[in-house]
Amino acid sequence: MKIATYNVNGVNGRLPVLLRYLDEEKPDVVCLQELKAPQEKFPIEAINAAGYNAIWHGQKQWNGVAILSRHEIQEVGRGLPGDPDDVQSRYIEAMVNNILICCLYLPNGNPAPGPKLDYKLQWFKRLQARAAQLLAFNIPVVMLGDYNVMPTELDVYKPERWVDDALFRPEVREAFHTLVAQGWTDAIRKLYPTETIYTFWDYFRNAYARNAGLRIDHFLLSPQLAPRLTTAGVNTNVRGWEKSSDHAPVWIEVGEG
């Protein structure tokens, strides 16, 4: 089963890119972030025509997450628990083929320090709490999406330039490592512990051509799913397509349970 995550950076504006990607790569499940579309503007007809079922949590102008699946999809919940006043659309869960798929779009946090970083760290605490609950279910779980975190210096081009950025600040990386330490497996690093792998390249300064990237899109696997991990990769070529997102799709394959 091939599971992917892709920050599309606007699902309607980049729909041709998304549909081309789905046609060429045919992942079983794709988690999308940054839909930038209200609930009623999600292009469900085009997604269905491409062979995918979908659930989505939209938001006007910003954020938004979705889970696309070539198989039956059963929504479990939407919105990250822990703050009833948080109206940002950043989290959704569904069961697909007996795997709990948790799609997330973690806050950016910039400018830092400030209220946006505070919100990011609070969101991380809520994610840690939900993740602990998920582990207690003792079922196969994958938490995937745009975490807006480079966990180590290996995950960022010229790390010295990012020391004050909310994606690389020590307290943000510590929050990520605390999450993983609950018992999760970072799928990419499990298979490629020392390789330089990026999933995002800025539109500025010719970053993609120079491979001046970041690894901020991650898969965290529960102990019940991690042994089934077989392969993983990044579709870096998609980032080079015309009118593409600044992220590339990232994927893993897991064997049957």
Can you describe this structure?
With 257 residues, the protein is α+β, with helices and mostly antiparallel strands. It has a single domain (2-254), classed as 4-Layer Sandwich (Deoxyribonuclease I, Chain A). Helices cover 25% and strands 25% of the residues. The chain contains seven helices and twelve strands. The strands form two sheets. A six-stranded mixed beta sheet has the order 3-4-2-1-12-11. Strand 7, helix 3 and strand 8 (141-146) form a beta-alpha-beta unit. Helix 3 (115-136) packs parallel to helix 4. It is globular and about 45 Å long. The termini are close together.
Features:
257 residues, alpha+beta, six-stranded mixed β-sheet, globular, manganese
Q: Tell me the quaternary state.
A: single chain
Poorly predicted regions are: none
Largest sheet: 6 strands, mixed
Annotated CATH topology = Deoxyribonuclease I, Chain A
What is the level-2 CATH architecture name?
Answer: 4-Layer Sandwich
Give the helix/strand class: alpha+beta
Radius of gyration, taken over Cα atoms and rounded to an integer in Å: 17 Å
TL;DR of this structure?
The chain has helices at residues 15-25, 44-49, 115-136, 170-180, 187-191, 207-210, 236-239; strands at 2-7, 29-33, 53-57, 65-69, 74-78, 91-96, 99-105, 141-146, 185-186, 217-221, 229-234, 250-254.
Task: Give me the secondary-structure topology.
Layout: E1 2-7, H1 15-25, E2 29-33, H2 44-49, E3 53-57, E4 65-69, E5 74-78, E6 91-96, E7 99-105, H3 115-136, E8 141-146, H4 170-180, E9 185-186, H5 187-191, H6 207-210, E10 217-221, E11 229-234, H7 236-239, E12 250-254
Parallel strand pairs: 1-2, 7-8
Antiparallel strand pairs: 1-12, 2-4, 3-4, 5-6, 6-7, 8-10, 9-10, 11-12
